[in-house]
From TrEMBL:
The lineage of its organism: Eukaryota, Viridiplantae, Streptophyta, Embryophyta, Tracheophyta. This is Uncharacterized protein.
Length: 146
């Protein structure tokens, strides 16, 4: 009677064999052991193939993540540069707005000064017109008296 006991522990296969009948021929035993060795090698090859596939998947995942990281760093750099350009543009726009506000204030001051000057000139014209009118009336009165 033969007893075969197999135990799988992680990636290792443990096989224990008990031969009770020694009357069996040696060739049958050799064939049986050869089968067990082949079975063990096949399992090791299968396990190796699985590990290799897993390793390749992990390598592919790592490479993909590294590429994503490089891409993210590149995108971040581009966004920082763009933000810097926008901030610089905003600074230039603010400077232009400030310059235009100063120009508007200066023009408003000039306009106010010109309005006051025009009012004074109109008052002077009215005053001069009155004086001329008074002189005319005064000369007309003087001319009538002669």
């Amino acid at each position: 009677m033969k007893t075969l006991r197999c135990q799988m522990n992680g990636s290792h296969l443990f096989i224990s064999l008990s031969l009770i009948h020694a009357s069996k021929s040696a060739s049958n035993c050799n064939l049986f052991f050869f089968f067990l060795i082949e079975l063990n090698e096949t399992e090791v090859e299968d396990q190796t193939a699985k590990v290799t596939v897993e390793e390749q998947m992990l390598i592919t995942t790592i490479n993909s993540m590294e590429n994503d990281l490089v891409s993210a760093k590149s995108d971040t750099k581009l966004l920082r540069e763009e933000a810097e350009k926008v901030n610089k543009g905003n600074g230039q726009i603010c400077a232009q707005i400030s310059a235009k506000q100063r120009k508007i204030a200066s023009l408003e001051s000039d306009s106010s000064t010109l309005n006051q000057t025009m009012e004074l000139m109109q008052q002077e014209r009215v005053s001069s017109s009155k004086k001329i009118a008074e002189k005319r009336t005064g000369s007309n009165l003087t001319g009538l008296e002669k």
